[in-house]
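User: Assemble these into one structure.

Assistant: Restating your components, then the assembled model:
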Amino acid sequence: MSLAIQGLTKAYGGLHVVSDVRFEVPKGALVGVIGPNGAGKSTLFSLITGFLAADAGDVAFEGRSLGRASPMERARSGMVRTFQVPREFSHLTVRENLMAAAPGQAGERLIDAFFRFGTVKAQEKEIAAKVEETIAFLRLAKVADVPAGRLSGGQKKLVELGRALMTGARMILLDEPFAGVNPVLIEELSVRIRELNERGIGFLIIEHDLPALNKLVSTLHVMDRGELIASGTPAEVLANPRVRDAYLGGAAA
Amino acid sequence: MDAYLIAIAIITAIYVLMALGLNLQYGLTGLVNFGVVGFFCVGAYTTAILSQKGVPQYITFPLAALLAMAFAWPLGLVSIRLREDYFAIVSLGFSEVVRLVATSEGWLTQGVQGIPGIPKMFGTFSGTTQALAVLGLLVVFNLVAIAAMLRIVRSPFGRMIEAIRDNEEAVKALGKDPAGFKIQVLVLGSALTGLAGAAYAHYIGFISPEQFIPLITFQIWMAIIMGGVGRISGALVGAIILMVFLEGSRFLRDVMPFISEVAMASVRLGVVGLALVLFTMYRPQGLMGDFTRK
């Protein structure tokens, strides 16, 4: 089991934003989490990735309990998230955004940046080669030297995915990757995600856009008001009356 | 007149050192340091106190920078993980604490009376030669600092601090700890500021706590805002513009003789303030800022 979510709970005062959510993401799986606005999906992501501290529950990644590990430690363990509103490094170019994401850079230590220029340069060359591959894979070559702040919403999501790939993550958590992205790019992004999944990278995806997600994932979990109300294949889940009720607000009933 | 121009150039060079430090901290990393003058004060007092005891300047200068760093490090450790606006307040508080300690701990700092007779740099020379030697040394300091900044900007370290400035949460999401980078930047920038303080003390020859008010901090902020936040050339140009306004407005008295000496001091600050307002309105990216970047 790659990722195990074990009873995560978070409340603000009396408001339970996430209540005792538990499910598992098998190694190399493509799993989706859906739910209406305010269902607690993004909060769940923040709990999994350590950006918020859970009131109760735990997360285990590749069999290791993460307990109170910081977001940085969680990311370094091989589980990297993106954000609902893209958090690109706006003044850095796309290429620099990806370069910055590479782990274990000697040149990020001041001493080395000044006095081990050779080592740093050699490492930069290695990273740059990997960045070129990633840029080509994500079809970002045309904007590689454009400051990321000037890209479209969809392109920014690709940059975030690219950065996650550069970290060498084995599990990537995408927070609404299709939100605000044009339909052509949604299709493109789906294809890329599938290709990456075939290479063995696991995905947990929060999404609002059901049709795009249905085609992509093998397992779907549905949240409503902080609780997990259904799990299964997309077909099973969408046939569930409770899901239709929560998600479509009873309109389909 | 020559002597006057050299004097202004020396003060400008001292300001450039501080502007380079603040540009590294705020311009490149986004660290809101409102306590610049605190590190300046630490540097100045370090060298002044040691010089009184007969320690030579080639030892007191590096010690001034080291002591400023030694103050910056724990300050960073305890406060840099706070929200950035909190760090701004903590740093401002720090600089006021430094000034109050300098005021009250008379046994060490001679309190409000200040420390007079701090030996000049290149004291074996005199007149213009001596002033030019001081200026030359400061230019060398600045060149070394600028070379170091360029090296930083072009390194992976520089890339990472700019990433932190643009989005700290995203840096965390990639598994890198922004706090470690920010502390290093705080410490390094403070070394330049401490060095500037040492140069100031030896150049003016007399220091007292009232010289180290927060106004100095905000003058450095004005310099980098007018010059262009995040640009190394901006720190240089901004410090020069600041000095042109500060000193140039001195001559306002020639055209406005009806204003008293005391009122003039306020008018001069007003002129700098007006310049800052005009800059932020019409050239928010600063003089050296890139038009193409948003």
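The longest helix of chain B spans residues 2-28.
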